[in-house]
Amino acid sequence: MSDLVIVGSGIAGLTAALRAGRRHRVTLVTKGPLLDGSTRYAQGGIAAAMSPDDSVEAHIRDTLRAGAGLGDPAAVAALCAEGPSLVGELVELGVPFDREDGELARGHEAAHSVRRVIHAGGDATGLAIHTTLITALRAAPVRILEHAFLDDLVADGGGVRGVRLLGPNGAEVLSADAVLLATGGAGQLYRHTTNPPCATGDGMAAAARAGARLRDLEFIQFHPTALAAPGSPLISEAVRGDGARLLDADGRRFMPDAHPDAELAPRDVVARAIAAVMARQDGAPVYLDARPIGADRLVRRFPSITRMLLAHGIDWTAEPVPVTPAAHYVMGGVATDVRGRTGIRGLYAVGEVACTRVHGANRLASNSLLEALVFSARAADDLDTAVGWRARPAGRLPEAAADGGERVAREQIQKVMWNGVGLYRDREGLERAQELLTGWRAGGASVADRETANLLQLARLVTAAALARRTSRGAHFRVDAGNAEGFGRVLTGAARTAVPAC
């Protein structure tokens, strides 16, 4: 039996804790309350081949195709083959997935060849999974530390030996035989994001400081349809899967001109098409017209979105909804193998913080919950054989030297990333972003200060990765690379800064 610290309380961290807690001493640490994080906000569902008209092979093909040729076949095969049984375990655990005629109901989302997205509460899948896992965790032999921020990993030449936390009682060091990062993504790099405020890339930044390799950071997925309002609330892709259409300011449908699959094209294509139309409209939003779905089905299938829109004064059963792209998901992260191992002894990473290359250059819709489920289970099982050393008492890590230059506010980082390292990129904009980010410094004693320092560290890494990849692939689109997408040519220079206007 070994000591394991898991950092993060989304689907990845909770799944790993429940699984590893059967055989190891587990402490689960989370920056906020257990229900914090991105999992609860997942609307569309979880993709898995669980019906007679579907197959693991079809799911593999769709995932690799969406990944624009950069998906790792071994990782994708593990994801799609092991997903159905693990989703079955969620059913047994009590997740109330929606059913039709006694069978699991399935939604359709972009770039899926069949209906395979399983959902709960209509559009509240993440919340249903999250609350069910939390209930199970509270009954499990797992120590829980809430409101404890990951300040850094405790590492030496022999590997990672614990974590340093900042909590209500100040700094605390936890020793461990292994640390599993499940800290989620870094959506707060951008001024417009569907991610919650806690998504500040803490695990990625700490892993990088400990010497772990980060890869594919240039691949940032922008969700096509966030509400064009403060906070950028998400409007699920499943709405388009059920028949909603995108319209410009004149009420004209434009996606059929951008891609043969129209509104169900891969997310990167739809998001760029929307951004291009917005630029031609001087930043005005485009509209999602969900009225073809029918009022009764809209309210029944998407109750959470209906309530959110009504709170913003929009009745989408009677009028189109103004939407805009927003930063949504990081395909890159801490480089791992298919069992969550980072290459640093004692350090694992799973979920959005990690990069198994299962998503390639563009994540297939509703594969994120599945990724967290599959690879957290794999990492927890790997601990049985991989942890072969005992932790030594950990001392305090030395403070990192502060950068020189002007002290930066988080909003400055977000603005630079949106304008220069967003949906459309070119060398001039990237180099300008790099110059600004290099000249800034961040740091301080508070959790908010440490989060901003993590964001600045990651912003530099993302920008460097985007500069290094000179050709377009998936979510990374270089306007200066001779791309075939005609709508890409409208977004050059100052025009990029007008997207979106919210």
From TrEMBL:
It holds the Pfam family FAD_binding_2. Gene3D superfamilies: FAD/NAD(P)-binding domain (3.50.50.60), Fumarate reductase/succinate dehydrogenase flavoprotein-like, C-terminal domain (1.20.58.100), Succinate dehydrogenase/fumarate reductase flavoprotein, catalytic domain (3.90.700.10). It comes from the Bacteria. It is an enzyme of class 1 (oxidoreductase). GO terms for molecular function: L-aspartate oxidase activity. Pathway: Cofactor biosynthesis; NAD(+) biosynthesis; iminoaspartate from L-aspartate (oxidase route): step 1/1. Its main location: cytoplasm. InterPro entries: FAD-dep_OxRdtase_2_FAD-bd, FAD/NAD-bd_sf, Fum_R/Succ_DH_flav-like_C_sf, Fum_Rdtase/Succ_DH_flav-like_C, NadB, Succ_DH/fumarate_Rdtase_cat_sf. Keywords: FAD, Flavoprotein, Oxidoreductase, Pyridine nucleotide biosynthesis. Residues 3-369 form the FAD-dependent oxidoreductase 2 FAD-binding domain. It is found in: Cytoplasm. Its cofactor is FAD. Its EC number is 1.4.3.16. Residues 450-481 form the Fumarate reductase/succinate dehydrogenase flavoprotein-like C-terminal domain. It catalyses: L-aspartate + O2 = iminosuccinate + H2O2. Belongs to the FAD-dependent oxidoreductase 2 family. NadB subfamily. Catalyzes the oxidation of L-aspartate to iminoaspartate. NCBIfam families: nadB. This is L-aspartate oxidase.
